[in-house]
């Protein structure tokens, strides 16, 4: 397929992030920017997480409800679509959603939550 973009053109898109707060304190950056196809890591801090709490990530596109992406209790877990990983810190007080090759269609609000 022939590209309609000049060779020197870089496509930028913004991923927006938010946090769902129930009775927990969660915090992370409110926006991030990357070029299409360039990996990006989205960090979430959850210092009051209990050992039995699962870390969940959701993605919400404009005009749609949030959709579940991945969850983990500890360690790392592969994310099939979009390709990437959820990595939970050893002390489980933070996590990062790593998107390997984000596309323009991945621009959305990303939520971190505990359950």
From TrEMBL:
The chain positions of domain Ig-like read: 7-115
**What Gene3D superfamilies does the annotation carry?**
Immunoglobulins (2.60.40.10)
**Organism, scientific name:** Calidris pygmaea (Spoon-billed sandpiper)
Where in the sequence is the signal peptide annotated? 1-23
Q: According to its UniProt record, where is this protein located?
A: Cell membrane
Q: Which domain of life is it from?
A: Eukaryota
Q: Which GO terms describe its biological process?
A: immune system process; response to bacterium
UniProt-listed InterPro entries: Ig-like_dom (IPR007110), Ig-like_dom_sf (IPR036179), Ig-like_fold (IPR013783), Ig_V-set (IPR013106), TCR_complex_component (IPR052051)
The alphabetized UniProt keywords are:
Cell membrane, Disulfide bond, Glycoprotein, Immunity, Membrane, Signal
GO CC terms of this entry: plasma membrane
The name of this protein is Ig-like domain-containing protein
What parts of the sequence cross the membrane? none
